[in-house]
Design brief:
The structure is a homodimer of 153-residue chains. Chain A has helices spanning 10-38, 42-52, 61-68, 72-84, 106-126, 133-151, and strands spanning 58-60, 88-92, 100-104. With 153 residues, chain A is mainly α. Chain A has a single domain (9-149), classed as Orthogonal Bundle (Arc Repressor Mutant, subunit A), CATH 1.10.10. In chain A, a hairpin with a 7-residue loop joins strand 2 (88-92) and strand 3 (100-104). The two termini of chain A are 23 Å apart. Chains A and B meet through helix 1, helix 5 and helix 6 of A and helix 1, helix 5 and helix 6 of B. The structure holds a DNA duplex (30 and 30 nucleotides).
DNA sequence: GACAGGTAGTTGCCGCGACAACCACATTCC
DNA sequence: GGAATGTGGTTGTCGCGGCAACTACCTGTC
């Protein structure tokens, strides 16, 4: 209402816009490359990464959701789509009648093992090859600061 | 295939994950706050910003697309939704029979003027208040580097 | 002025994502 | 043990976003 808003400085505006741009371009590019290269979306990839990170390649749906910071409805639908394509399977949880496990299939494991090298290579080429170690360090600090601030309101 | 992939170092992995996390949380939060506070989405907001930046508050659809780095289909649909809500209006371009202008309405101008202060305040609180000027500078460098690298393949 | 190629914009289709409503089972409290 | 409350998952609805197909128009070139 009044004029005592603390607007952004020119530097801040540039940094803010640059960040938004960089993220938009980068994720679009990674998604596209992943899609055409291996038929996976970034979301598929993330799910598969989480499943391969864990012994047995099986997680309760809600655990997957926590790891990915996803809504449960998002988890549910993503798993449905992936299950249709054979990348994962659902299994009832014997110890909890409500629960469901999401299990990595052989085909899912193969898919991510084939997709990962090119994906990582692209992240490296587009992001890290252009940065000094100090910049990498600062990037982590900055991102960390945001996450911490989001934590407390 | 072979094992000569240059995987990410631990530092790089942390920075990468932190970036993805920070962006996911931040944009979710900004979107939510904007939505509940003023009924606008981030996309609505971006369109309105671009229109207010320009004299007369009118842009050809393709110009808007260039400014936002959006697909033309995305522009078209976004404008349709916003036009339904009275935030913008479409106008035929007299000088090009194919063309369409997107025009800021009074109601659109009011909407962004009401939404902007809280939005900027939130960006400041969640992002810039936690950063030193040097960090802001580095953030811009990093993001800029990514955008430049995306330019050339 | 006709035809080829390019450009502006819309639409269909599908995958993605948030929110809310809902179902089923678990837990707690009496 | 039965009601109240909580938790894990699914589904409906709607807005968002990319790609490809399509229409309409413009800009050459001959």
């Amino acid at each position: 209402m009044t004029d005592d808003v603390r607007w952004l400085t020119a530097d801040e505006q540039r940094a803010w816009r640059a960040w938004l741009d960089a993220h938009a371009w980068l994720s679009a590019r990674l998604n596209r490359e992943l899609q055409t290269g291996s038929g996976l979306s970034l979301s598929d990839y993330d799910v598969l990464v989480h499943l391969t990170d864990v012994p047995e390649g099986r997680l309760r749906a809600f655990e997957l959701g926590q790891g990915l910071q996803w809504e449960k409805s998002r988890v549910s639908r993503q798993v449905s789509r992936m299950a249709e394509r054979g990348l994962v399977a659902r299994e009832a949880a014997p110890e909890d009648g409500r629960g469901a496990y999401v299990v990595l299939t052989e085909s899912g494991r193969r898919a991510i093992e084939e997709a990962a090298p090119a994906h990582v290579e692209l992240v490296r080429r587009l992001l890290f090859d252009g940065l000094t170690p100090a910049q990498v360090q600062t990037l982590e600090e900055v991102a960390g600061s945001v996450v911490r601030r989001l934590g407390k309101s």
